[in-house]
Amino acid sequence: MEWLKSKSLKQSFFIISSLFLCAGLLLSVMSFMLCINLRNDIEPYPKYEISLDESGNIASSDKANTDTELENNNAHNTQIIFLNILQFVLPVLFVILSLVLADIVFYRLKLKKPLLVLQSSAERIRHQDLDFEIKKCADDELGMLCSAFEKMRIELLNNNRKLWRQIEERKRLNAAFSHDLRNPVTVLKGSTTLLKKKLKNGNFDNENVEETISLIGQYTNRIEGYIEAMTTAQKLEDWKCSPSSVNWSVLTNELEHSLSFLSEDMGKKIIFSFNDTDSKLFVDRTIIQNVAENLVNNALRYANTVVNVELSHKNEEMMISIFDDGLGFSSAILQKGAAPFLRDGDAAKQEHFGMGLYICRLLCEKHGGNLVIENTANGAKVTASFQILKP
Question: What is the mean pLDDT of the segment spanning 272-301?
Answer without folding.
Answer: 86
